[in-house]
Amino acid sequence: MIIYRFDKEVGKQVTHFDSNFIMSKISRLDQPVQIGCMYLEEGGLIGFHQATVPQLLLIIEGEGWVRSDIEEKVKVQKGDAVFWEKGEGHETGTHEGLVAIAIESEALNPSEFMVERG
Could you write out the DSSP letters of every residue in 89-116? Predict the structure, then answer.
């Protein structure tokens, strides 16, 4: 399990075409990808299971915790991105609720654009 950041502070200013915004790049994929949005209410849980493909979980609202089969629970919050390798056991939970985007693809390589959380 690796935790990356995609919050505003690690993004880059974009000014092309008279634009004015900050972008945090996440991934570029040349293979099929599945993207979904998960809504975990208070006490929500994504139960412990093995990743069938590499998975990236982007926390976009709220906070909670994640764990892998070799690590204890680690706190995550808005702006964190959690990456699990294919075959890695993992679980996600929250006490107060969280919303996350899940990206699943054999081609995922978050380290190409993202920085690890310190």
Answer: EEEEE-SS-EEEEEEE-TT--GGGTPEE
Q: Report yes or no: 99 and 61 within 8 Å, Cβ to Cβ.
A: yes
Give the closest residue to 80 by CA, choosing from 30, 52, 94, 89: 94
d(CA 23, CA 48): 32
Number of domains composing the chain:
1
Q: Can you give the residue range of the structural domain that contains 46?
A: 2-116
- Enumerate residue ranges in the chain where pLDDT < 70: none
What pTM was estimated for this model as a whole?
Answer: 0.87
| CATH number for the domain harbouring residue 103 | 2.60.120.10
Query: What kind and span of H or E run contains 70?
Result: none
